[in-house]
Specification:
By secondary structure, the protein is an alpha/beta fold. It has helices at residues 31-44, 64-77, 95-105, 114-117, 124-134, 145-156, 185-191, 207-216, 240-253; strands spanning 10-12, 48-51, 53-54, 60-61, 82-86, 109-113, 137-142, 166-171, 197-202, 220-223. It has one domain (10-253): Aldolase class I (TIM Barrel, Alpha-Beta Barrel), CATH 3.20.20. 38% of the residues lie in helices and 17% in strands. The strands form two sheets. The protein has an eight-stranded parallel β-barrel with strand order 1-2-5-6-7-8-9-10, surrounded by six helices. A two-stranded antiparallel ribbon has the order 3-4. α8 links the parallel β9 and β10. α2 packs across α3 and α3 (95-105) runs parallel beside α5 (124-134). InterPro entries: Aldolase_TIM, BKACE.
Length: 255
């Protein structure tokens, strides 16, 4: 990934699979809302956007048509912003549906949870093989060191290609009240010391503190309302762009 000199790559995750306007009035749900959020976040300093789309009832969707609509809307508003789609199951989709999403959409970049694909290990070769064959960049979502062990085992077995080396460390997903801590990064780094292209996301009021700590170690950062709606004091950000701007300000103050 390329990004401006002297600061880490920043991805905004503006909505996620589960939250809606009831959680925050500025959380984007429709394609036009997501596109306008992308514009504001890009201006605030985000390099990329992690995309979730909704079905007609506002629920999580992996529909290729809905993805195409949202991708086109974002490209029309802010073509210079890189977009990564999610294949998250969110308790709704099985691995066959995740594979179908990748096959039907063939996105430029997708996040794929190792833990979720391991629900149907017989399909793992098809998932990662399709991505390799179609030039789909994969970012492996890792929730703990067991996920790392599974990813490494698949890599050693040739199921995951050597060049499929991007990872996202999800800090504190299973902590009480989903309150992440900067210390949560250490086990990931210890379990995957050879990681070169790694990103971090975190939950709760210490989201930005976790990301700032990752930045000092060379990590890339994912920030936004998917993971946290509030600042360190628990005050809600006005919108995703405000969170991105606050993170940028924090990073610029770091030695």
């Amino acid at each position: 990934m390329t990004h401006p000199v002297n600061r880490p790559f920043i991805m905004v995750a503006p909505n996620g699979a589960r939250r809606g306007r009831g959680d925050h009035p500025a959380l984007p749900v429709t394609s036009d809302q997501i596109a306008l959020t992308a514009v504001a976040c890009h201006r605030a300093g985000a390099d990329a956007l992690h995309l979730h789309v909704r079905d007609g009832q506002g629920g999580h969707s992996l529909d290729a048509g809905r993805y195409r609509e949202a991708l086109a809307e974002i490209a029309a508003h802010v073509p210079q912003m890189t977009v990564q789609i999610t294949t998250e199951a969110a308790g709704v989709f099985d691995v066959a549906a995740q594979l179908a999403c990748l096959r039907d959409l063939r996105p430029h970049w997708a996040s794929v949870s190792v833990r979720e694909i391991a629900r149907a290990p017989e399909l793992a070769g098809q998932v990662y093989g399709l991505c390799a064959d179609q030039g789909i960049r994969v970012q492996h979502i890792l929730y703990d060191t067991a996920d790392i062990a599974q990813m490494v085992a698949w890599r050693d077995a040739g199921i995951i290609a050597p060049e499929q080396d991007q990872v996202l460390f999800v800090l504190g997903r299973y902590r009480e009240n989903q309150q992440s801590s900067p210390a949560d990064l250490a086990p990931f780094r210890a379990a995957l010391p050879d990681a070169r292209d790694w990103m971090v996301c975190a939950f709760g009021t210490r989201e930005h503190a976790c990301l700032a700590a990752a930045a000092t170690q060379g990590g890339q950062l994912r920030v936004g309302f998917e993971n946290s709606l509030t600042d360190a004091d628990g005050t809600p950000y006005p919108d995703n762009a405000a969170s991105v701007a606050a993170l940028r300000s924090l990073l610029e103050r770091q030695p």
